[in-house]
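User: I'm new to structure prediction. If I give you an amino acid sequence, what do you actually give back? Let's try with this one:
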Amino acid sequence: GAQKDRAVTEAEWLRKWETGNIGFHKERGHPLLQKYLDVLLNGRSGLRIFFPLCGKAVEMKWLADMGHSVVGVEVSEQALKEFFAEHKLPYCEEPVPEISGAKRFQSTSGNISLYCCSIYDLSSSIIGKFDGVWDRGALVAVNPCDRQRYVSLMITLLEKNAAYLLVTVSYDPNKHKGPPFYVPESEVKSLFG
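Assistant: Good question. You get back a string of structure tokens that encode the predicted 3D arrangement of the chain. For your 193 residues, that looks like this:
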């Protein structure tokens, strides 16, 4: 209710990165990913794992170092470049022909590919499908009016036996305008089924 009409523009997100107002970024791996890693991997190796609205999440390198292929998407080119710089990872940058103005930053090892564009510009025909998703700050960052669109896209990116780890936050939405936005468990269930 209180947040349903709230919308954060792409320019506002870019400004957060430019001004260092990135309290949502975690310098260390998220303890819930560590705790539920076995649920994500389910005994499998060499998975393709998607990081929606990835920022410069340190977990991307952690999972890539385990032998998984990591793909992320983020509107902030600065965030993506900082990711590679902070991990001292060489990378190449190339345009994404299917998406006007988009770029792909790929580690020279080939196991980390980060797309700089709107998540809504992506499709499985461009980035493929995934065995797992780590959604630590995406659903709660998506504007409430775009949640159904976001979840519909995410579902098209999942392989049949994919695992989807989702972290949300619980608080009184009348006291904080978001983001992160409040997404109650009932809404998560109605969105993802």
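You can read the tokens as a compact description of the fold. Here is one thing that stands out. The beta strands are 48-51, 69-74, 91-95, 103-107, 112-116, 130-135, 158-166.
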